[in-house]
Design a protein that fits this description.
The protein is an alpha+beta fold and about 220 residues long. It is built from five helices and twelve strands. It has a ten-stranded mixed sheet with strand order 9-10-1-2-3-6-7-8-11-12. A hairpin with a 2-residue loop joins strand 2 and strand 3. Bound molecules: magnesium ion. Magnesium ion binds next to strand 11.
Length: about 220
């Protein structure tokens, strides 16, 4: 019999999908990633440059950011679709502490100069088969290498509440989560102090791929 322990954690090197769903459960975004470390502390996974991804678009194929802020979450007006794309840039290391309603993303320049942490507020991560499932909370935090912290997309969260994507109570909870992360930064707790900025991917790793059914499911490509 397989022990619960082996079912709870993925081995380093395992390819997984990091999936974002909308409140109506539809898939909004899928990122194939490679497990770097997975244990009781949480999941650390790598999104490699050049990885095929599925990302959200408006029903007519335009970018989300092409709509005025006030209409961005008006799904009835603009609808939603998915677009097949390629992840550009140097790649992203995501750290999802166990049970936390956020993940911390590390960014580097092309010459591996560390650019800082981006804290994406999102549902605590559920695991389904070889996928992590979560839901974006719109509000984000940027933590600079000098530990300066700034909230991002407050206006977008207000728009999401006005359009009914999230309730005012949910938005208050998300702001509370942001305050909790700001407190972690102030005391320089994990994962910020864990030196993940010194981590580098194995150059021999093949680029993870999107499963064929997800490629076929894309509205636009
Ligand atoms: Mg976000």
């Amino acid at each position: 019999m397989t022990s619960e322990h082996t079912k709870l954690h993925w081995s380093p090197g395992t390819e997984i999908l990091w999936r974002y769903r909308r409140p109506d459960s539809a898939i909004e975004s899928v990122r194939p990633m490679r497990v770097v470390r997975d244990d009781d502390r949480g999941l650390v996974a790598w999104l490699a440059p050049g990885t095929p991804v599925l990302r959200p678009a408006l029903a007519d194929g335009r970018e989300l950011r092409s709509t005025p802020m006030a209409e961005r979450f008006d799904f009835e007006h603009h609808g939603r679709a998915t677009r097949l794309d390629t992840w550009h840039g140097q790649g992203v290391l995501k750290v999802a502490p166990t049970g936390a309603p956020w993940s911390v993303w590390l960014f580097w320049s092309e010459s591996w100069k560390f650019r800082g942490w981006y804290v994406n507020l999102e549902d605590p991560h559920e695991r389904v088969d070889h996928a992590v499932m979560t839901q974006d909370h719109v509000l984000d935090l940027v933590v600079e290498p000098d530990r300066t912290t700034q909230r991002k997309d407050e206006d977008e969260l207000e728009s999401a509440v006005a359009s009914g994507r999230y309730s005012a109570a949910a938005a208050r909870r998300f702001r509370g989560n942001a305050a909790a992360v700001e407190a972690v930064v102030r005391r320089w707790g994990s994962p910020f102090r864990d030196r993940w900025e010194d981590w580098r991917p194995d150059p021999g790793w093949p680029t993870p791929q999107l499963p064929a059914d997800l490629v076929a499911s894309a509205t636009y490509r």
